Structure formats: C-alpha cells, structure tokens
Amino acid sequence: MQARGCAEINQAFELLAAKDIDLQQETYRRFFHLCPEAQELMGHSDEPMRGRMLEQTYELLMDAKLQGPQSYFRWEIRNHLSAYGVSTPMYGAFFQALEAAIVQALGEAWTQQMAKAWQRRVEDLMQEVMGT
Ligand code: HEM
Question: 108 alpha carbon to ligand 1 midpoint, in Å?
Fold first, then answer.
C-alpha cells in the first residue's frame, strides 16, 4: 500500500473546503464529456448518489489505507466492473475530470507539488484498478 501524494492532496482538499467550493457539477460535466459511455451508465443516477461517489473518491485519494487487498477500493472496483458495467479506462477519465475541476477551482493555489502528488497518487490507484 502506497501513500505517495496523500499529504499534498489533503492540503488541496483543505483549501477547497476553506473556499467552500463544490466540485460536483464541474467534475461530472468534464467526466461525461471525456467519456460519454460513462454518462450512459450514470444517466439515471441522482445528484445525492453522484455526491456520495465523489465523497468516496476524495477519501480514497487522501487515505492510502483504503487501498490494497481486502480493501474498500478493491471491493468497490469489483462491484463497479461486475454490477454496473464500468470499464477500467473510465477510472482514468474520472480522475482526470476531477483533477481538471480542482485545477480550475484552485487557480494559483494549485502548486507544482500538488500536481506531482496527484500524478503519483492516481498512478498508484490506477495500478490497483488495472490489477483487480
Ligand atoms: C475512485 C473511483 C470511484 C469510487 C470511489 C466510486 C464510488 C461509488 C459509490 C460509493 C457508489 C454508490 C453510491 C451510493 O449509492 O451510495 C457508486 C455508484 C456508481 N458508480 Fe462509482 N465510483 C468510482 C468510479 C466510477 C466510475 C469511473 C464510474 C464509471 C461510469 C462509476 C459508475 C458508477 C455507477 C454506474 C454507479 C451506480 C449508479 C446508480 O446506482 O445509479 N463509478 N460509485
């Protein structure tokens, strides 16, 4: 289990919370633009459901303990692939959409260190997605 990048990502989410920024609309707008197939899968989902999914994603990005065998994330991926018809590349698009929404929201407060940390964290999570 790797915790690369978690500290800087925590910092970014703290800044977003302090500014009271809600990323939900922008993230899903970008996600569905990048990946129209995902919109088909999620077309019937309501805003609270989308909010819960995003919240879980924040937790996962900030806390490496949710990764690894027998972990929440492993279970979630299997469930998504088998029950919802999600495919692994969709995770890449989802993380990409979320990052773009954060970059836009934070502006100059989004640092090089955060960008690097994000890249590493997503790399580790995607390795887990691909290996499931
Ligand atoms: C880190 C990535 C992700 C996490 C942590 C996550 C988490 C979740 C959670 C917790 C739920 C259930 C929410 C609830 O009803 O309480 C959910 C539902 C769902 N997720 Fe994700 N998700 C992720 C990525 C994705 C991706 C990439 C897709 C691609 C389309 C996807 C598609 C769905 C669908 C179709 C549902 C069910 C929607 C419904 O019941 O209407 N998820 N996700």
Answer: 30
CB 125 within 8 A of CB 67: yes
Ligand 1, atom 22: closest residue by C-alpha:
53
What are the CA-CA distances from residue 39 to residues 43, 74, 94 (Å)?
5, 23, 11
- The residue whose C-alpha atom lies closest to atom 42 belonging to ligand 1 is 80
Mutate to test the pocket of ligand 1, among 24, 78, 84, 118 (most ligand atoms within 8 A of CB): 84
Q: Where are the domains of the chain?
A: 6-131
**CATH code for 6-131?**
1.10.490.10
∠ CA 85-91-92, rounded to 5°: 140
Ligand 1 atom nearest the C-alpha of 38 is 30
Q: Is the pTM of this model over 0.85?
A: yes
Q: What is the pLDDT of residues 63-90, one digit of tens each?
A: 999 988 889 999 999 999 999 999 999 9
